[in-house]
Structures are given as structure tokens and as C-alpha cells.
Amino acid sequence: MLTVGLGANMIEPGLTGGRLDGIGVYTQALLRHLPRAGCQVAPYSWPRPLSGNAAADAISIGQPMPQSFEAASLVELVTPRVHRVHMPADLFHVTDYRVVRMDCPVVATLHDALPIKYPEWCSPRLRQLKNWLQRKAAQKADHVIALSHFAVDELVQCFGVDERRVSVVPCGVDDEWLQPPDAGEVAATLAALQLQPGYFLFVGTLQPRKNVERLLQAWLALPQAVRAERALVIVGAPGWRCEQLVARLRAAQADGENLVWLDRLTDGRQLRHVYAGAGVFVFPSLYEGFGIPIVEAFASGVPVVASNASSLPEVTQGAALEVDPLDAGALGEAMLLLSRDTALRARCAAAGRARAARLTWHETACSTAAVYHSVLNR
């Protein structure tokens, strides 16, 4: 059986605060599903530079690397032709930009080139350092995994990745998402969250590229009767540069609008129930390397309105109503159409479920294992 070290930084509670972003969901899925694909997986995390707080510095998922990423990078910088981190595995898979040279082949998943291509959508904190690290990661990895063909073009253009060293492996959902959850459990979750079924739903961190302000604008322009019948439910923690959006969400709630913001929903089962209770899923993102929430909505049987930008048309493949994410009017029209046209809703829901059936985490793991074997057999 192939032995694989897996970078677990993005799922380590001491490093993430317990919240998973898209990279964390991806990492967690690989950790669960690679064993079924014939890989013995050992998770590793880079510990923080010692802070003096043993509890905060502890690694709880898998094993700690022998030193912090910062220290290992410094040693590698000083002795670039000599230093190799020892890894007792056939291969090591990094799911973020923290790549150092090892004494085994390294595969790196590079998700997108957002910080370089659209720096205005990213936090300025350490942006230049992270961009440099991502460029170095692209150079040092023996092979790169991209989540979409769109992402390949971005990595080649912005990081100088050799396209011959890139494999495309899409993300997915767990098989259980393809089966309807228990109706009683869904009803109990919705009641606990004070939600009425049939709402418009968005899932994602609140940050500029997610385009939630334009979603709010589109929803507020819908007829009052529609807004009263179908709430706008936003699931996502606050991210960078979302202060104005949060103020607008709070103002809409204060004005009595039928708007719900779930900023602390971290339970996976509850999230699945919230998807199941939605009438229309809306994902107007300006830029995605993949877009996992769309596949989750497809699997849940929810008709989808999606942006026609970046990788999203590649993910939806015609199963969603596609709109220009910069056009709030078009976004609102698509939301209204899906909320009123029963036949269209049924067609979109069926097409989405068929698309999701081809995008499972098991398939992701099997394709990823095939990449490992191809790297080792060179």
C-alpha cells in the first residue's frame, strides 16, 4: 500500500480556530477518502513558532513536523542544495502553499492565483510574502494538482508552472450527500435556526470576491411578497474587508427584512440540513478555483443560480442558471425565475443531481492516488 504524508495545516484546530475554508474541506476529504483509494495516509502539520503556550502550540491532528515552516524555510533558503526534510513516506502531498523540499517526491495542490491576479480582493497582510511562497511552492513541487482547467491556466500564467507537471482533479461531495437526509432531522434543524423552508441560500466566507453585497442588492430589489415568502439565508463567517457588508446586513435586519445571517454554523450535519431546506441556491462569486458549495447544492437537489465567471461554468456544465456576477439585475431576474417556475426548478434540480453524482470525494481520492502513482513511476 502506498504511504502518503498529507499536510494537515488547514484542518488543524490550533492553526485554524476550528473553522474550515474550502482548502480545509478539501484536505479533510482527502484524509477520509484516500484510504479507500489504496493509500495509507499520515497527516502532518507545521507547528507554530514556539509562543511559550504549550496548549496553543500543540498539534492535535496527526504528527507535528520537526520544526515550524518558517524555520524549515529559512534553513532551506540558506542551504538550498543540501537541505531536505526527512519524510518517512513514499510521497508527501501539500494542500496549501507550505512546500519545502523533502527526501521523497512532493505533490502540491495549488488552488488558484487570486492573490497575484486580484490583490484587491485579498488581505494585504503578508500578501507579498505569501505570493512569493506560492511561486516557490510551484517551483519546488515535483507535481501540481489543480482543481479545474481554469485554475491550470491561472497557475501557468501567474506562477510559471510547467503545464506538463499539472494534473486536474476536481473536488466533490461525500456519497451521503446524494441521498436525501432524514426529513425529521431537517425540520428540527430548521426550527432550531428559525428558518422557513424555501429560502434563497448562499454559503461562503464573507469577502470581496464572493460578491455577497451584489447578492443582497439583487434580493432587496425583488418584490416584497417574494422576500417575505423566501428569506435570504447567508451562511459564512466574516472574512477580510467585509465591514461594509456586515453593516448592510445588520441594517436590512433592523429594517425588518426577512434576512438571516448564520455566521457560526460549523456543524457539517446542520449545514447539510440547511442546504436541504433551501428553495434556490445562489452563488454569484467573482472568482473561484473550483466552488465546492455549488456541488453541495447540486447534491442536495437544490436548483442553482451561479456566476458565469472563472471556473464556475466548468463546474456547473449547464446544470445551473448562469448570470453575469456584475449585473445585479440579471442576478435578481434569475433568482425570481427559479423561485416561480416549477418546471424549470425541477429541470435544474435534476441536472444538478446528475452533475453531483459525477463529482464525489471518492472519485477525487481515486484520481489523486493515480497522480501519486504516476509521479512515483516516472
List keywords for this structure.
alpha/beta, Rossmann fold, six-stranded parallel β-sheet, 15% strand, globular
Report on this structure.
With 378 residues, the protein is an alpha/beta fold. It folds into 2 domains: 2-172 and 361-376, Glycogen Phosphorylase B (Rossmann fold); 176-357, Rossmann fold (3-Layer(aba) Sandwich). It is 43% helix and 15% strand. A 7-stranded parallel sheet has the order 3-2-1-4-5-6-7, sandwiched between helices. Strands 10-9-8-11-12-13 form a 6-stranded parallel sheet, sandwiched between helices. Helix 11 (243-254) links the parallel strand 9 and strand 10. The longest helix is centred in the last third of the chain and has 16 residues, at 342-357. Residues 21-176 form the Glycosyltransferase subfamily 4-like N-terminal domain. This is Glycosyltransferase family 4 protein. Keywords: Transferase. Residues 196-354 form the Glycosyl transferase family domain.
The CATH superfamily of the largest domain bears the name Glycogen Phosphorylase B
For the sheet with most strands, the description reads: 7 strands, parallel
Structural class: alpha/beta
Mean pLDDT: 93
Supply the CATH architecture of the largest domain: 3-Layer(aba) Sandwich
Strand content: 5-15%
The tally of beta strands, per DSSP, is: 13
**Gap between N and C termini:** 18 Å
From the 3D structure, determine the CATH topology of the largest domain.
Rossmann fold
Number of domains: 2
Radius of gyration using CA atoms only = 21 Å
